[in-house]
Amino acid sequence: MISYCIVYPHPLYNLGLVSLMEKFKPGQTACIRTGLYPKECLLKISDWLGELIFIGVFSKGNDEIKLVEAIKKKSKKSQILLISTPEYSEVTRKCFIKGANGLVYVHSSEDLFLDALTRIISNEVVMPHGFRIHPDLNQMVANQRAAGRLDFHLTFREKEILALICKGLNNRTISEQLFISDQTVAVHRKNLFRKMGVKNSISLMQAAREKRLIPLL
Predict the structure, then answer these.
(1) Is the whole model's pTM more than 0.90, yes or no?
(2) Can you name the residues that pair with 4 across neighbouring β-strands?
(3) Residue 150 CB: number of other CB atoms within 10 A?
(4) Number of domains the chain contains
(5) Burial tier of 146 (Cβ tally within 10 Å: 0-12, 13-18, 19+)
(6) pLDDT digits (tens, 9 = 90+) for 42-56
(7) 115 and 163 belong to one structural domain
(8) Residue 66 is part of which domain span?
């Protein structure tokens, strides 16, 4: 049974998500709460936490960012799926940095949304096509040249894989693009975690951003 809650105070939006969750896993989902406000959630997080948390991001404030951070501090196992539009990309980027696991746009098709749910439940990172957590790649190149030496060394292949991870690609897709096995990608991903001192892909993306790192492709 997959327990979930919806953080967005819009009845029709909530009904739509509940219906999609029933299609996703008929008879295997349980809705804990709907219609929640971010500020309300921050006060009593333990009362509504589920395995899957939908957060609607339709404002340019900081409440959703604070909520994502608070959820991840309380429960590492909770998967957070943001639902938003490109207009609020700056907020959703910050939510990813704080630990959000995925993003789908509100205008996405039903099939795309259900695919995103499957990937989220499998602990994959889900992002819309063209969405990036990190800055523009050209700017990152300039930043790296200005930053000088790093405190660790990445191989050419690790840099290739880091670039694709930062685009939100999973191991299978990366292996297909680079013509290597899934297992090889997994080993490189673990090496990147170790070298950059992180424990998951979201933290890896954040570290790459903070260190102004760009793969030399």
Answers:
(1) no
(2) 31, 52
(3) 13
(4) 2
(5) exposed
(6) 887 777 788 899 999
(7) no
(8) 2-121
